[in-house]
């Protein structure tokens, strides 16, 4: 807003520029121009496919492969609930064999999500929790800081595997490996289940409900 003030015969002008940042409306949902969702996880967990599910269209390459498909940080935007949501897909930054490129990827990721707010989605295959993922939070904290878990949601993929095994998500969360339970608890039990072959809006709505609660 630009204001010009004039006083008597001695006119003087003062320009006041007011910039409005993210604020919250009385519906309990944050209102702002942008939310950054950063997909993180090991290769093959379904990061890119989950990004496409959130976006509602295929923006990121996702296919079965013995080699990592995503090799650079990528971004795409969509509108959800009247807000611009930027989805950032990342390569595997937890692979110790690729230490030389990890710092580059982390730096690029931080550059892409400089605008606030930012929520990290740690993507884990619901029926394949590996030894390499047991210390994934320590690696995440080294990359993004000790408080990153306060901004993290666990996004489990391959929800259809639970359905085939006639197991509810709640039952899975109680019966999963102790190391996986620790990860979920460290993230204050913020988790959501995705089946990326399902194009229905429910799973994305559940994710955004969690994101909204985090940002209030």
Automatic annotation (TrEMBL):
It is found in: Cytoplasm, Cytosol; Endoplasmic reticulum; Golgi apparatus; Mitochondrion. Keywords: Cytoplasm, Endoplasmic reticulum, Golgi apparatus, GTP-binding, Mitochondrion, Nucleotide-binding, Repeat. Coiled coil: none annotated. InterPro entries: G_AIG1 (IPR006703), GIMA/IAN/Toc (IPR045058), P-loop_NTPase (IPR027417). It holds the Pfam family AIG1. One of its GO terms (cellular component) is cytosol. GO terms for molecular function: GTP binding. Residues 32-216 form the AIG1-type G domain. The keyword Translocase does not apply. Exerts an anti-apoptotic effect in the immune system and is involved in responses to infections. This is GTPase IMAP family member 8.
